[in-house]
TrEMBL record:
Example GO biological process: polysaccharide biosynthetic process
InterPro entries membership: DegT/StrS_aminotransferase, PyrdxlP-dep_Trfase, PyrdxlP-dep_Trfase_major
Keyword Transferase: yes
Active-site residues, Swiss-Prot/TrEMBL: K181
The UniProt record lists the keyword Glycosyltransferase: no
Organism: Dyadobacter fermentans (strain ATCC 700827 / DSM 18053 / CIP 107007 / KCTC 52180 / NS114)
UniProt signal peptide: none
Domain of life per record: Bacteria
Modified residues (N6-(pyridoxal phosphate)lysine): K181
GO molecular function, one term: pyridoxal phosphate binding
Gene3D superfamilies for the chain: Type I PLP-dependent aspartate aminotransferase-like (Major domain)
Name of the protein this chain belongs to: DegT/DnrJ/EryC1/StrS aminotransferase
Length: 360
């Protein structure tokens, strides 16, 4: 069976060395020494001022919305994982969907201003597949209309744009360290900020809003993570360059083998160093996509309809807003298997099966 992804597992003994230290100290969670060590190394790796290691990539979106005290409407993308829009709903805000750019699959910055109303408080955009949004245009719009900007950078760890980490853009960026990501801590996520005025607030929001047993400042939540998850991050972080290189080799193999006369994939933004987080391909129709997916399944190859469905079509969304480009791409896209150690002969077999089922 070849799944769409396979978790990178580091040297077991190296991880167990950290686990033994946890056992000796008896300190399992609550901002422990390994967590603090990981936060320090991540800040250095990303060259950012403030980073908060949290429980997962969804809770950090909720904390970001809470920290910026957002109300009313938040402009967002329909082409993302449901965590993006769910976090907006959970924080009692209204997602206002703006369609995507047909080339990059990111929110179309040219369409944002038309959706701004007096109730709009922020833009929450996703760097889809780790491909940067038009951050300059979004920043200009936000400044013009006095809006906050949050980037869901769940896919963007290791990506640099114009020489700096993509996670350093916006008022806040969030990242996922789930086991399927380029860099993972089994479960985990992070809030990234360059604003000193948010430092203490973010630290407290992830820990129930209090320092010690008596000093309560506001209603926080449990967004903490454990020493065991931090240990996995400490072992994996030095491996990131090799992980990205191995993923790049798989990416380039697909590039050379697939039939680009019929298929297409997102156009990567200029001025980036990419992390090769996903390999999405778009088929000429949903019918062809289903035919290919079924053929791959017979061959025990499991791609993923990522992202599907377009979030604006979910029945529980408070506003039904048409996003024809997103709806079209979501119906035709598949993310192909991509992970460290995927053999070339399997990439070749997958590509051959796809190419063989493209004709009407």
């Amino acid at each position: 069976m070849i799944n769409v992804t396979k978790t990178f597992l580091p040297d077991q003994e190296e991880y167990l060395q950290y686990v033994r230290g946890i056992w000796e100290r008896g300190y399992l969670t609550n901002n422990g020494p390994l967590l603090q060590q990981l936060e320090g190394q991540l800040k250095e790796y990303l060259n950012v001022d403030y980073l908060y290691f949290c429980g997962n990539g969804t809770i950090v979106l909720q904390i970001a919305i809470k920290a910026l005290e957002l109300k009313g409407e938040i402009i967002t993308t329909p082409f993302s994982y449901c965590a993006t829009s769910n976090a907006i709903l959970w924080e009692n805000c209204t997602p206002v969907f703006v369609d995507i750019d047909a080339a990059t699959f990111n929110i179309n910055a040219e369409l944002i201003e038309a959706s701004i109303t007096p109730a709009t408080s922020a833009i929450l955009a996703t760097h889809v597949y780790g491909n940067p949004c038009d951050v300059e245009a979004i920043e200009a719009i936000a400044q013009k209309h006095n809006l906050k900007v949050i980037y869901d950078a769940a896919h963007a760890f290791g990506v640099t744009y114009k020489g700096k980490s993509l996670l350093s853009y916006g008022d806040l960026s969030t990242c996922s360290f789930h086991a399927t990501k380029v860099f993972h801590t089994i479960e985990g996520g992070a809030l990234i900020s360059n604003h000193p005025e948010l430092d203490r607030k973010l630290h407290l929001l992830r820990a129930f809003g209090h320092q010690g047993d008596e000093h309560y400042e506001f209603a926080g939540i449990n967004g903490k993570n454990s020493e065991f998850h931090a240990a996995m991050g400490l072992v994996n972080l030095p491996q990131v360059p090799a992980i990205i290189q191995a993923r790049k080799e798989v990416f380039e193999a697909y590039d050379s083998l697939l039939n680009w006369d019929i298929l297409f994939k997102p156009t990567l933004s200029a001025d980036i160093e990419y992390n090769y987080a996903y390999y999405p391909v778009v088929f000429p129709s949903e019918a062809v996509m289903f035919r290919v997916m079924e053929a791959l399944k017979v061959g025990e190859i499991i791609p993923r309809r990522y992202f599907y469905p377009s979030l604006n079509t979910l029945s529980f969304m408070p506003r039904q807003i048409a996003c024809p480009v997103s709806e079209d791409i979501a119906a035709r896209v598949l993310s192909l298997p991509l992970y460290v150690g995927l053999p070339y002969e399997d990439i070749e077999r997958i590509s051959r099966m796809i190419n063989g089922h493209l004709s009407p």
